[in-house]
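step 4 of 6: structure.
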Amino acid sequence: MYNVSFPRMGDYDVPAKFLLTHVLNVNVISPPKITERTVELGTKYSPEFICTPFKYTLGTMIECLNKGAEILIQQGGGCRYGYYSELQEKILKDLNYEFKMVNLVTEGKLRIKRINRCFKKINPKYSKIKAIYYTFITIKMIKYMDKIDEYIRENIGFEIKQGSFENIKEEMLIKFGKVRSYHELKVLYRNYLNRIRKVKIYKPDDRLKVGIIGELYTVMEPYSNYFLEKELAKNGIEIKRFTNVDYLFFKKGKRMRKYLKKNKYVKYSMGADAADNVANTEYLCTHGYDGIIHIKSSFCTPEIGAMSLINKVADKYGKPVLFFTFDTQSSTAGIKTRLEAFYDMLEMRRKI
Amino acid sequence: MDKVGIARGLFYYYYGDIWKKFFDELNVEYEISPRTNRQIMDMGLKKANDEMCLSLKTYLGHICYLKDRCTYLLVPRICNYNSSNQTCTNFWAIYDIVNNLFDKKVLTYNIDLDKKETLKKGLFRIGTTLGKSKLDIKKAYIKAMKHYYDNRKKLIDDNYKRLNSKKIKILIVSHPYNTYDDMIGGNIVKYLKSNDIEVIFSDRFDTFKNSGVKLSKDLYFKYSKESLGGIVKSYDKIDGIIFVSSFPCAPDSLVNELVIRKIKKPCINIIIDESEAFTALETRLESFIDMIRRNAYV
């Protein structure tokens, strides 16, 4: 039995671990939470002007290897994310680690054939029927997690007892990791949804509403945006966010095809989530949100292209946009100041 | 009369020959922006987003220069030549960026072989927008392609010839829009030539599909793939390699790092930003050349 590990993004290590243990029959080492140490390790061995997710994932990989992982799994995306794994493998091999690297997605496309080949490398005798069944459960699990997340995101700023949402969510994630069948998962989901709806909140009518858009890794991994959502919630702001795994896999494609046909700003896909973010900006502007926060990691090429378009769209509807570029420095004071100023500005606009 | 503006940046260095011949044959007037100078670059810097790559900034500068001088701007969008030959995402977005930043009619075509959009289709569409008959366009297209391949062959032969010279040979690995641009790679080439060194260009090799596969197995960026092919083809004959990239270039940041870790020839990685001072670069190049010369004697 191999020790398998993978880089972390948000809370999605729970479904990933669930899928890998059941399908491949391997021992999964869950990736540790990202800390300052992780970022330091990653930055030390990364090339100079690489985008920040590279550094985070490399740091996590080193920590996983130190814990005894023998196989590392890397995913890919629609930009240069798909090419990370080859360089990361070389860097880690130069550091004298011994392991196998498996890259599930390259060229920005999810191909079942390739995933099959990769899985066979790890466990030649894995059962395909089992794989289909557990993939189905994993997809459902991700959907449920995202739904609950969405509810929490909208309400966490207004909870009366601090931390009540987070406690329930943490408990839920542990329970989800131990699920055995689809039925069990469904019962658990309903249970927790009820509990989460019963949490007491106080929502004033004149609350500020802000949409968060941006590059997918930075949006979904809370450490890499310095817990921006928490910071906003503390100020009592309702948050809307589109990007989550469920959206990226199942909803984005259809929505984008529709949007590209009828809008005035974008004609072609601009790589990764760029065109999608322009669409989101237009949605947020027309649906009564007070402001937009765009976050990305430094040197994210597709988003840089999209920024000028987002500016144009927001200008047309007269909505303010705050651009954040996150790199690996650890001080949060600057971010807090800018957020406070943005928040004050939104309130002033309201009064006028 | 309609006038088409062609910006001397990014795509021009790949497809310029085709465009020029194509418009010549169709009797369409066109204007090509001058070689990059400080003025053009400054216009680009003002218009562009801070974090865009230097090549894209200069490209926008060229567009700024052209926007009042012609009726159409020619800005293609190049996405992929099948899914394992993709381009940088800036190339995907450039049409939309120009279209939104500038209030100007844009002639465009889209190369996206995954969705069956080819150069031929694109040029036909451009021809019809300019009001030419299909027969004329077809003739012009055939002539343009022939002209392009002939030119390309000459360049490649020339490159191979230089590879056999007895001087010290240095390979420049970069994208053509960096190598041949005066403000980006031009100074480096000039400096090397003035020091009696044979300069070989990585983009002028007949590298088809998979010659770069020795260096990188999973690479899916078309233009980087071709550069790596150039390295593989000339590896035994060259004395040193210079990697030139414009400041935050997305594919280069990964590919160059990987290649530098894999090759065993002397190499130097030069990253160029918008500052004009050449002195620091000169020092680095000088010491690099000295090192290679010493290697050759020993």
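step 5 of 6: annotate
 - Chain B has two domains: 3-147, 164-297.
 - The CA atoms of residues 168 and 293 of chain B lie 8 Å apart.
step 6 of 6: archive
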